[in-house]
Amino acid sequence: MSLPASAAALLTEWLPSNDDPVRPLMTLGTIDPSGYPDARSVLLSEYDDTGFFFHTDSRSRKVRDVTETPRAVLTLVWPGRQLVVQGDVSPASADELDRAYAHRSRYLQLLAWLNTPELAMLDHEERLARWAAFAAEHPEGTLSAPETWAGFVVEPVRLTFWHGDPDTASRRVEFARAANGEWAESILPG
Ligand SMILES: Cc1cc2nc3c(=O)[nH]c(=O)nc-3n(C[C@H](O)[C@H](O)[C@H](O)COP(=O)(O)O)c2cc1C
């Protein structure tokens, strides 16, 4: 993403390292085919020089949305802080997909296989039984990503860091990328 040094420093300060098993939660906003915005929570799998990665099921609405309109917004919130990232969306590489799947918890690795409309329609007992049977057939460490495992990177065009302050007004530090690739930094009221 070749960000200004001050933006990169804020990301390092605010986001956990990629190997931290506790992943930040983001609200991912997309544009649906009717033109309405849609939003849902996803985990930030990792971030690097190209942007912010999330992973999901290729049959999901969000994948339909970003395939049709490859633009998104991410919002991350912490006590006293908010980061909003607007950006362009593109598919993650095959290597990144495998790495992200390997880093998912056991539960989320199983979920990537079992997150199907068929299972969702069953009653609770049957869902428990199917989950347990699948887990028993596929011990920890033996699963690789299903074909439906999909990943995307949001390459920022704008990052807005909101700082709260109980003793004075909040304010935002914003970095916006112009068409020529240059980044501009500005200070905004909260
Ligand atoms: C705490 C939390 C974390 C979630 N993380 C993810 C995630 O990383 N990837 C994902 O596809 N869905 C995740 N979900 C489920 C999504 O919010 C959403 O319900 C699902 O992906 C379907 O979204 P869609 O129909 O808009 O595509 C998460 C939900 C919650 C509550």
From TrEMBL:
Write down the required cofactor(s).
FMN
Per the database record, which ranges form the Pyridoxamine 5'-phosphate oxidase N-terminal domain? 24-118
Fetch the InterPro entries from UniProt. Pyridox_Oxase, Pyridox_Oxase_N, Pyridoxamine_oxidase_dimer_C, Split_barrel_FMN-bd
A Pfam family this chain is assigned to? PNPOx_N
Q: Which UniProt keywords apply?
A: Flavoprotein, FMN, Oxidoreductase
In this chain the Pyridoxine 5'-phosphate oxidase dimerisation C-terminal domain maps to 149-186
Membrane spanning stretches: none
Q: Enumerate the GO terms in the molecular function aspect.
A: FMN binding; pyridoxamine phosphate oxidase activity
Does the record's keyword annotation contain Oxidoreductase? yes
A Gene Ontology biological process in which this protein takes part is: pyridoxine biosynthetic process
Query: What top-level branch of life does the organism fall under?
Result: Bacteria
The entry assigns this protein to a family as follows: Belongs to the pyridoxamine 5'-phosphate oxidase family.
Q: Cross-referenced PANTHER family, in alphabetical order?
A: PYRIDOXINE-5'-PHOSPHATE OXIDASE, PYRIDOXINE-5-PHOSPHATE OXIDASE
Q: What is the recorded name of this protein? A: Pyridoxal 5'-phosphate synthase
Q: Which organism is it from?
A: Herbiconiux sp. A18JL235
